[in-house]
Amino acid sequence: xxxxxxxxxxxxxxxxxxxxALIGCLCASSPAWSEASSNDTLDGETSAHAPTLALQAASSxxxxxxxxxxxxxxxxxxxxxxxAPRMLHLTAHDEVLIGSRAGKLYRGQxxxxxxxxxMEVLVELEGYPHSAVVRDARLxxxxxxxxxxxxxxxxxxxxxxxxQRVIAIPGGGGxxxxxxxxxxxxxxxxxxGIQGNCSDQYLAGTSPRYxxxxxxxxxxxxxxxxxxxxxxxxxxxxxxxxxxxxxxLATGETRLLATNNGPDHWGYEHPRELVVAARxxxxxxMPWYQWIDGRWQADDCITSDxxxxxxxxxxxxxxxxxxxxxxxxAVVPPGHPLAADMDVVVxxxxxxxxxxxxxxxxxxxxxxxxxxxxxxxxxxxxxxxLVPVLTGLQDAASGERWIRxxxxxxxxxxxxxxxxxxxxxxxxxxTFSQ
Length: 434
Known about the structure:
Helices cover about 5% and strands about 35% of the residues. Strand 5 and strand 6 form a beta hairpin.
């Protein structure tokens, strides 16, 4: 089969997935960028020809999916085709750094108008470089079992030998993503999950019950005042937190928000996935308790005693349907067209579990669909609610998925950037008219 025949075949598949509302097709021509080797820079002169998709109308998404809500004139463009991308980091110099499951850290350069000028593989690293941040002319990368650092400035070339190991991270099996976030105090915060559904692991624990490798499930802060640096528990009791973002409140306070993926053994409808405020010293119950029907219930899958009492568990700020797999999270900027309806946007990866049992071997069309969700977070006086932002990414008949959002970040111009690590994987951009 010729390359052009492959493109046409791929385009037909996407047309089938996206339905009649599709105006442009990603595969109508070669992507603006395809994956480069570690020594190649991808030229962005073809970016003006990158196909743009019109978002689905509510009438064309599956009947059981929430209605699509976007300001008129919103559009979506695939900026780059890259392999298994994960978390995004936008730097002060308009670079976008993207971790990946492919062992590669990608770097893109954004133009003043928010488009992508170029994309390249910055460096290849062992150990699953899931996330990266730049702080004070240094690049920090979180792998499953180590925090790495290298001297950095925009445009620099890096090799694996340029990185030093700062400190070990509790590793092991199961949930192996490690998400870095740069706090308003210029500190480094890291999210990591427990190994499984019912693993007796406690991030704020102490030896002998919880040796260092068993301190998982929450958010840690890197304490750098002494030598060597050490991790300090920040928030504990989260099964698998992936997305982290800092939110400035009207009170002047800044709080850390985290998405949390609930366990699989309760079935398809429970427990709900959560967005929480990961505060210093907060405890979120898991795996000893699960959030069921608006209250914390004991989980009998674990026999050890909870390290803290039920009345100490912090309530969530928002719920997302069970088995949705919320990943990255971004705060909607003030004055943005989305700001009136939502506080944050969450990348929902979609489930592997199927209805009604929650097991993997059912009808794939019954899986929770991948999508972008806007969330209005709960306050002392109001309840949280969900606002669909991007839907229609899963075929209602076959369950085939076009993309699965992984992370989201707002650019300076108000664009929403997102990564997908499945299907048409790569970097995407959603633009909004004012």
